[in-house]
Amino acid sequence: MATASAHPRQAVGAAVMCLDSLSHNKLTALAPSLGLPMPPEVQGVNKIQRLAACLAAIRDDQLLAVARNLLRAGLGEVGLAELFALEDAVWSTEPVVGITAKIRRDVADAINLYDLARHRDRFERLLNQFWVLDDDPMEGWVSRSVNSRRGRLQQWVFDNRDWSTRDLFDDLGAFDAPPARFERFLAALVDPSSLPDEAAQLRVVEAVNGVLTGAGGRLDQVGEKDGYPYFHLVSTGPNAGRRPKTLIFASMEKPDIRLVSVVDNDVEVLQGSDKLLVYDRIVGRDGLRWKDLLVWWSEITGAKDEKTAAQALHRRLLASMPTDERSPQRQVYRSFQAIFEPQGQNHPALLPEVWLHWDHQTVKQRGVHALLNHRMDYLLLMPHGHRIVIEIDGPRHYATDQAYADTVRGDRELKLRGYDVYRLSYTELHPRKLAQVVTQFFAQLFDHYDAGSPSSRPLGQG
After folding, report:
1. Angle at 95 (CA atoms; ends 93, 96), nearest 5 degrees
2. How many CB atoms lie within 10 A of CB 324?
3. For the chain, what is the largest distance between any 2 Cα atoms, rounded to a whole number of angstroms?
4. CA-based, 20 to 30 A from 256: which of 76, 109, 219, 392?
């Protein structure tokens, strides 16, 4: 059980030292995939000393990447407590609602435990995703032992039904857990994987939201899983992240838009797919991945197979970019897909020609109050609500003092609206080094925003 956010160095150190059961040869072979600077095997140096030297060589700015690699590797040698500490270290970098200990207790008091525990096996598997249940080394030596959390769970929750939700949360350590662990656990309680009962889901959500309303958070439905509602915990405070509602991309000209209902913010796009694309699906905590975009495209076009759909979608996205095959924007897109698509479909979708704001008047008509950079070269919707704008800068961006000032001001406006802006210069995208630049930049970007392939542990990690 993790009771406080683990420092990345402590968490990585504890996990790496678990690898001392491996042979020297296996350590040498495994280290590169984990990003570990493992020193070579030297006669007279044992594995503990070698692992300690490895840890000392890891820079602070490498720790989170190593932690993520260890989590994705799923090594059996790393204990559950050490894995949870790694999760806490990684999750500590993500935005949280920040639910206080008092509010956590109020939430527990509002939930009927037996709405949660009605599916015994599913509920126990869920708890295993977040808490160390087998914490008694004598478990198994004594029959009917209740010295472990699992034993107490079975006796006081499943058998005797004596505990309240507060009793269980207290025993698990949920009230003292790091914010991200508690908040993920709270959302997982109503996940269809653990609670396939819509009526019970909605009762729990209503109870939780009744408490969280004044605490700056709520469980918000973001989609469906197998026909059941699917919820994320979202912030409702002044700095709350927003979920995309109207995503207009691959546009060839300024969109023709009208407000059908001003009261409901109901936007109608009057152009067809020959001029622009509108992604109208919910974007969840994993962001918008290539596979999500491909499923959407297949459904709206009626494509019969994945390969045909992917080829048609590539053609449509490229059609929105400059027609010159030598243009840096086209070259970056082609290089990106050639590098990442063969690795699978879980990488973030690279969306070209995205409208980030729209004004029925022109910049000249609007004057100094105009928003700049209406249309971006690329947008990436990353995990946990991060929005990444990527611009390919040509000579015009710096041709005059005014052009440079407009570029800086436009970036400032985007950042204040919650976007992270990255710029690539056309001079560094020379064909001879294009693949290297694209590979290194996007690999570092995905690692920084934890946009790798989802873990096989869907509830505990995301």
Report:
1. 115
2. 10
3. 81
4. 392
Q: What tokens does 163 get?
A: 């505990």
Burial (CB count within 10 angstroms: exposed 0-12, middle 13-18, buried 19+), residue 174: buried
Residue tagged 């005059």 (tokens): 400
Token digits of residue 19: 């690898």
In angstroms, rounded to a whole number, what is the distance separating the alpha carbons of residues 51 and 13? 9
Rounded Cα distance between 420 and 445, Å, is: 11
Q: What is the DSSP letter of 391?
A: E
Sign of CA dihedral 307, 313, 316, 318: negative
At residue 174, the pLDDT reads 96
CA distance 126 to 120: 10
* Contacts (Cβ under 8 Å, ≥6 apart) of 204: 111, 112, 115, 116, 189, 190, 195
How far apart CA 398 and CA 286 sit, in angstroms, is 36
pLDDT of residue 146: 65
pLDDT of 34 = 94
Q: What is the pLDDT of residues 207-218, one digit of tens each?
A: 999 999 878 889
Q: Is the pTM of this model over 0.85?
A: no
Token digits of residue 261: 């209902």
Show me where the domains of the chain are located. 8-91, 101-235, 247-448
